[in-house]
Structures are given as C-alpha cells and as structure tokens.
Amino acid sequence: MKVITGNELLSGAVIYYYGEDRWGMDLQQAEVFDDKAPELDAVLDATAKKDRVMSLEAIPVEREDNKIVRTNRLREEIRAKGPTVGNYGRQHLSEADYVSL
Amino acid sequence: MYRYDEFDAAFVRERTAQFSDQVKRRIAGELTEDQFRPLRLMNGLYLQLHAYMLRVAVPYGTLNSRQMHKLAHIARTYDRGYGHFTTRQNIQYNWPKLQDVPKILEELAEVEMHAIQTSGNCIRNVTTDQFAGAAHDEIIDPRPVAEIIRQWSSLHPEFSFLPRKFKIAITGAPQDRAAVKFHDIGLMANEKNGQVGWRIFVGGGLGRTPMVGKEINDFVPHEDLLAYLEAILRVYNLHGRRDNKYKARIKILVHETGIDQIREEVEAEFAQLKDGVLTLPQDELDRISTYFAAPPFAADADDVLDAEQHALENAQYAKFLKRNLFKHRQPGYTSITVSLKSVGEVPGDATDEQMDAIAELARDYSFDELRVSHEQNLVLPHVKKSDVRAIYERLVEIGLAEGNAGLISDIIACPGLDYCALANARSIPIAQDIAKRFADREDEFGELKVKISGCINACGHHHVGHIGILGVEKKGTELYQITVGGDATEQAAVGNILGRGVTGDEVPDALEKLLNVYMDRRESADEPFLDAFRRLGEAPFKEALYG
Which pTM value belongs to this model? Predict the structure, then answer.
C-alpha cells in the first residue's frame, strides 16, 4: 500500500494526497493506494504536470484497523510529525498555500 | 570590519532583485521547479524535510552587532524565532516561506549580507579562525586576505559551474583552528626569510572519501596568491570529473592524479598568470587591511583574572573562565567563546532573544565585533578582562553561560534527520544524550572533541572528531558508527572506525566505555584523550567496545 506525499510550493510543508484533488498535512487522511493501482500513477503524473508539489513520491505504508500505523522509514515518520527535537512542530500550511495546490 | 563598496552593494542589490523576480515567476507558474531549483540554490535556498531552508553567508565568520540584530529580526519575523549556526560559519533558517525569501534577502542586503554562494558548484564562503585578529599566536591576521578571496571569488564567471562545490579555509596562526587541511584549498600563514606568505594545501575534504590536504606549495607571497588560487581552480575546472558526483571534488582529482603532477600543471598555469591582472598590489592589501585594523585597545587594561579565587565563589563561573576564554594578543584583553551547546539544547541554535543579547554584548564590550566558529559557537573577540564577569552574568540570564568550550558537551552536530533531506539518521538527539550523560564529569576528561554526522556527507565533521559518530540507516533503523582518533588541527588525522554500529540508545554507553579506557590508561591528567589514543592505538578502545 502506498500514499502520495511531497512538499507544497509556497511553504515547503509536507503534504499528503487526500483524494479528489485535495491535499493536506494529515497522514491519516491520505488516500491509500494499492501498490500497482493505475490511479496511483495517474495522480503522480497529474501532480507532476501541475508542478506545485515538490519532492513528489509514493511511499509504502501499512494499515491496521483503518489507521495508517507505519511508514517504511523513520524519515517518513519525522516528515509526518515534525522534528523530534525542539518544540517547533511542523511547517504551517496557510489558506494561501492550499490555493497554491 | 570590511564595509561594502559600490561594487559589492550593486551585485547584492541586483541579485536580490533578480531572485525576487524569479520567485514571482515560479509562483506564477512561469518557471518549472526544474528551472527554478538551480536558481534558488544559487541564492542559498534549499528544500529540506519539512520546509525550505535558507543559508545565509557570514563572510569568514565575522559579524557586527547590527548584522546580528538583523539575523535575530529575520528569525523573529520570517522564521520561528531561532537560527542555526553551522560548521561553515554560516547561519541557517529552517522554516522560511518561499514568498518571504526575497524580503529576507532585501533585509540582509541592508546590513551588507546575502545568501549567494552558500550552495551550488561554486567557491563557497571562505572560512577562517574564529579568533582571527585577536589570537596571541597569530603570524598574520588572515581576514584581509580572506576578504580579498571573497571579492575575487564572488560571482567569478569562470568558476560558477565547477565540477563540484569548492571550499577554501585560511588560518594566520600555526595552531590551526580552521581545519584548513580538510578543505579543497587550505591556506596557512608561513614565514620565510622574514616575509609572510602562504603555505597551500590542496585536495583535503571530508564526506564519503575523507582526505587530508596535500601541500602543493610551501610559500606563495601575498601578491601571487590570487594567481596561484586561480591556477589551481583552472586545473580543477579542466580535469575535475563531471561524470560522477561522488568523484567530482578536487580531493579525488589530486588523489587519482598525484600531487606531483597536479603541482606541475598548476605551476604551468601559474606561470601564465603570474605578474598579470591578478597580482595583488601591496597598496590594495594595505587598503583592505585598514578595515581590519586593531580596535583602540586600552593600554592600561587590568591583566589579572584569578580563576582559582573565583572557583571558591562560583564553580560554574570558574569553569567558564577556564574553558571559554582564549588568550588575546593584547594584554588586558581576552576572547570569549559563547557556547551554543548548553546541555540538552540543540548544538548551534540561538534564539532571536539570545542573538539580540549577544549583539548588545558585542556592542558594549567587544568593539562591536562577533565571530561564528566552525565549531558552531559564537565569539566575542576583544573583551577587557575586567568586563568578563559582567558578560558572564548576562550570558547566565540568556542561558548561554555554559563553560564547556572544547569539552565533551561542546559537540559539533549536523541537523541530521530531524531536518535534513539527505540525512539517514538523527544527530541532534544523540548530541543531547551525550551532553546530558557526561555533563557532570566532562571537566575530568579535558579536551575532547565529539562530532556527529547524520550521513556520510559529514557536515558534522565526524571524521575529525576525537570521537566521531556517523549515523547510518540499516533496515529502517538508525545505527551509529564510532570512530576514534580524528583531528582537525595542523596534525590532521582521519578517525579509525572501531567496528559495527550501535543503536542510538547505546551511544552514551559506548562513549563511556571509551572514556573508561582513557581514564584508566592515561599517563596523567595532563595527557589529553587524543594523545592517549595515539600512544595506545585503537586496540584497547576496540576491545572495550566490542570485547
């Protein structure tokens, strides 16, 4: 299973594809694709063409009881939650940044 | 301190305007990310894990209070109230938004700063000794030459697309505090027949292939220095490998070609350039040097600082006096290291309030001068000894009075996987854990440089740590390789990898085992860790760690 993620253009914030052309910062709301689903490549292609999401990629995830419980790497855990040090949280995605998408 | 002339001001202004336009076009969709990426990188703007990161150049690590106040203002206004000082003597902001970056660059230009050449395959910001112009052991103040190199290398058209990035470091003292032998070019002041010139090392570096720079010339006079540097860059630009990013640095060229052949080619190129337009006239060197003239020191400043007496009153202050003062060339004065390594904090980070407070200390007590060290600390270079107590008390108020310069908690650590898109493992939590574990005992260990990198690119200089720690990722888990015996000074050495990696939780225990060997087997408390390692070899340390 995979979800689509990248960094939004204006803020650089980590975002996930929610489906139906919507994006946001919550991994739990990400649309989960089967690894070889044709829709996965279609979304990646369409997003790449719009060129508003950088470092675009599909990352493996595992799901239990309808929750995404694990990504494949610590890197993705940190992207999803923010730095493990300091109290800075994550980059904010403002209304304007959503418009960018 | 150097002040911009009309040429400097013009190119910074023009570049800021250009980048502002490029950002607008990117946001409007007129530039693709592929087109925009090299443009933003030329202006120090990276994309990291969570956000953009803006790297601002601090030329040879020198700042005045106005500039530091501006860095604080930028942190407060456009970022999250802090900045991260780096091993390149620069500052990085971790959370800027794209549309704010042109405004940040405009604000920086107001105080003669920019982010040009902090990324990309060009000559990067020149680095030097943080005590330059103040150190007691200096042969010559390297800052005028560093400034001339800055002017020569800024937007140098021939060297804007080198095979790979290129770093130059310079020291005017025989005690190398600028790690010159681990730079693409390292310059070390040298005296010959009563004249001061430059000993030149080439092909040093860290990263995945650490190399100690090799001497290419033992004496190049000031007037020929730019021509000689240009000759080296030309040979590198011509022969450096562009087919393989991992073999593109000059260290690989020097290693594969051999220093003798490289020298031959450089000398041939230099013969063409010598006595040409790059010859540096003495009057120009003198003109630049006036910007770095010694401040008006008081001739009658009190030269006494009784650390032992103070130890009876305040152990923390005594530790600060013992560790964070550096001998000044002027009697009655000292340089103070302001440690950005308070135990449990992020190495190299300073809040906007701390930056403002340090700027005020520089203005009030250090002739308006500040330095950033490659060890990720700040320095007040010219402080009257009689003012040290007042400065210390202010540093206590702002949480930066840790008396740990050169001790185990004064750790260099890259941002690691908490921020960096290239990292494989975290560095900062490891540094915090080590500092917490050993803070109470660190004075016993004496000088001990611990350096941590979150990937093989070695931004945390782990290869040259007395104890180096390299984070790697194995099957989704962070592991840390430990090296011992690295040395960034004039006795340059790359540390030995002791064996298999340990988990992050195990790192403090692993260091404790190494330190137990040192404490048990050192000849006396005067034998530093590194000397003991050189005497004993790696076997007892390896045995302690792996049995």
Answer: 0.96
